[in-house]
Amino acid sequence: MECDYQFQQCTGCQSEILKKDFDNHQNNCVSIKLTCEDCQLVYRRGDATTKHTENICLREQVRKLRDETKENKRMMQELTCQLNEIDKWKSSYNTITDCINN
Length: 102
Ligand SMILES: [Zn+2]
Ligand SMILES: [Zn+2]
Hints:
Blueprint: E1 7-9, E2 16-18, H1 19-28, E3 33-35, E4 42-44, H2 48-51, H3 54-101
Antiparallel strand pairs: 1-2, 3-4
The protein binds zinc ion (ZN) (2 copies).
């Protein structure tokens, strides 16, 4: 049988907690780090009201989306660039064939 009066260290506040209180403590400890599933922000439970309000969560999600869009834009630009190169090449090719035909 396991002894309930062993100590276990809290991953949040690093205090030694009696094993029988450990789960209860971890569920309530303000120093426990939580990761938001929606915005992936890591915050301590005790900071939730200041560092991870609904507002901040939404803003963080928007910011992430905007970053993704930025990445997409960059790729779009690269593709457009390549297309332009092809167009340029095509038109110079046309000039050459024009010359030959004349
Ligand atoms: Zn703790
Ligand atoms: Zn969030």
